[in-house]
Design brief:
The protein has no helices and eleven strands. The protein is an all-beta fold. The strands form two sheets. Strands 2, 4, 5, 6, 9, 10 and 11 form a seven-stranded mixed β-sheet that branches. Strands 1-3-8-7 form a four-stranded antiparallel β-sheet, with no helix packed on it.
Length: 120
């Protein structure tokens, strides 16, 4: 079992920045998991944001490419999402997720999420 706990959300004006963190705990070898961020806006389905695979490859949704950066610290069991040039359409609950698959179709573990609100 892997427990994931997100932090760092909040209210920010358009054009601003936020850094999300995700702490992993439990029976985990953090470095062996592909880690990712998935967001869900009110009334919408969950949307892939970014992932950082266990072989150190990254991928981003087109909507955040060039603005968001995913990174990880395997020694500290931490995942990050640096979000710059935020837009109102980035408003959502951001969930941290983990999978043993290199390119997950579905995620095995989820955090509760952290709210990000971007005002115009």
């Amino acid at each position: 079992q892997v427990q994931l706990l997100e932090s760092g959300g909040g209210l920010v004006q358009a054009g601003g920045s936020l850094r999300l963190s995700c702490a992993a705990s439990g029976r985990t070898t953090f470095g062996s998991y592909t880690m990712g961020w998935v967001r869900q806006a009110p009334g919408k389905e969950r949307e892939f944001v970014a992932r950082h695979s266990w072989d150190d490859k990254t991928a981003y949704a087109d909507s955040v490419k060039g603005r968001f950066t995913i990174s990880r610290d395997n020694a500290k069991n931490l995942l990050y999402l640096q979000m710059n040039s935020l837009k109102p359409e980035d408003t959502a609950v951001y969930h941290c997720a983990a999978s043993m698959r290199r390119i997950p179709v579905q995620w095995d573990y989820w955090g509760q999420g952290t709210q990000v609100t971007v005002s115009s």
